[in-house]
Design goal:
The complex is a heterodimer of chains A (about 230) and B (about 375). With about 230 residues, chain A is mostly helical. Chain A contains nine helices and two strands, in the order E-E-H-H-H-H-H-H-H-H-H. Chain A has a two-stranded antiparallel ribbon. In chain A, a hairpin with a 7-residue loop joins strand 1 and strand 2 (about 20). In chain A, helix 2 packs across helix 4 and helix 4 (about 85-105) packs across helix 5. Chain A starts with 7 loop residues before the first strand and ends with a helix. With about 375 residues, chain B is of the alpha+beta class. The termini of chain B are far apart. Chain B is rod-shaped, with a radius of gyration of 46 Å. The chains are: A mainly alpha (about 230), B alpha+beta (about 375). The interface of A and B includes residues 159, 208 and 215 of A.
Chain lengths: ~230, ~375
Amino acid sequence: MLIIRYQHWTCKRCCGLIIGRSEDLSIFGLLFLSNSIKHSLLNISENELSLLKGLAKNDTQAIETIYRENYAMIQSFILKNSGSSDDARDVFQEAMIVLFEKATSATFELRAQIKTYLYSVCRFIWLKKLQVLNKHVHTSDMLEETLPVEEDVVDHEAKNEEVILMESSLKKIGEPCKSLLTAFYFEKKTMPEIAESFGYTNADNAKTQKYKCLMRLKKIFFAGYKNGD
Amino acid sequence: MDEILLLDAIERYRNNEMAAEEKAFFENLRKSNAEIDQMVVEQMLFLDQLEHSAIVTSFKQSLSAVEEKLLNDGSIESTEPKPQGKLVYLWNRYRRTIAVAASIAGIVSIFTAGIYSVYENNNSIKNITPLVDYKFKQVDAKLKQFETKLNNAAVNTAVVPPISKPKFEGNFRATGFLIDVNGFIVTNAHVINNAKTLVVENTRGEQFYANAVYVNKTNDLAILKIIDTSFKKFAALPYSIRKGSGELGEQIFTLGYPREEVVYGEGYLSAKSGYSGDTSSYQISISVNPGNSGGPVISKSGEVIGIISSKETNADGVVFAIKSRNIYNAIEEIIHTDTVKLPSTTSLKGMDRVQQVKKMEDCVFMVKGN
């Protein structure tokens, strides 16, 4: 379904940086052989790598840059394919989460430009959505190369279901459990801080309370998990 | 309480906060107690999911914040041509249906038009087109003029260019033909309709001013007289004008000016009466176009049997020609002022068509006016 038009050559010695395409092999192949490749030669890709590092750290500046550089293209693609700008924002957000998951995963390797990757993911997500909605699929591509991203997207969807289940479970356990667990696991506050803000006499008390809440959350979560399966 | 201790232990183990001794003890416990091991695995999995959810949730919050910011400062447009997207989508989805509907509509309208035209005929509303070319291309005339000039220039390079009057260009074009050697020309009354200036032009491009000496709008006949002194009297006309009626199925031909050049056409007499049973004209089957109006309808033997006047608008090849005896009637009316002698014998009898046309084409004129 998806075609890779170019074979990307990545530097596997020190990072997953893309250093050239099959057409450039004559140049980059020599660099490979001479073992003298320097990243300073590839300023653009270095920039992309730092963006992804920022993304993995949930850095809003990096997110904003990626948004600014890529959103217009995605919106244009969605609009051309029977979508609205709301659809475009949803799809783009989802693709950003896929990229984020990719960037935070242990086995992450940058194999293509961020732009190409985002476009491929958005395209895949949107076409799938159109199929589900049984709408007429009229693909108008923008002569962009696409990558095989199905695996990433399917992965993300499985994880996303868990995230959604976790969010709804958190809502179900009620207060003060919800705030307590959010403060500890989401906001990464320490036990003494939590004890103080929640009015527990000491950190151990807060800890005991936290575990009680955690057990309830787990129960609700796994109940939903089994039902979901 | 035991369970809480266990959960705490798992969490510390997961976060690598255990001392080496405690860690070893904990791992031993897992190995020896399958139930505890099962619980550890489950809890670790759950914590992974909780942590992942936490990360993704906070990332989503950042995303929304960034999106909000960009929407507010206008870097992302939220106003997009949404209707167009919808329209394109609807079109893509329903174009087959639309195509079918359009074809049906087309068929229905053609059918309706057919019925309508039949209905119109029955109500004897005039549904015929006069064959005067009002839209003839001035460009055509200009081109021909340049061509003639160029040819003349090529031939007469050394000779003094002949003094010629500027070529007249009217706003309509039709056909007429000589009925008298002195320059009397028959054409349709609708052709000269209120024209101030009338000019006739022969196949060689020579132009002569003419006056209308007879106009009868009832039978649509007009007679012009060439008043130009440069017109040289013909010795004789090759065709005759038939007094009697034409026969059904009689082969006929015509010469006329649907273009800036004389055009030959042939056909047959298909009815002895014209439009709506008009007995003063024939129905003939011939291919004619605007500009053919006033052209002679000539029999095989070289007799003029009619004058082309109009064609039915909705049918192809249904042409009406005024019967030639109307010319005789017209002559009766002008005989007091002008002496017109209609040709009585044809010299075209027995000739092949090419010879006939050659002999008579000089007598067929283009009628122009404004």
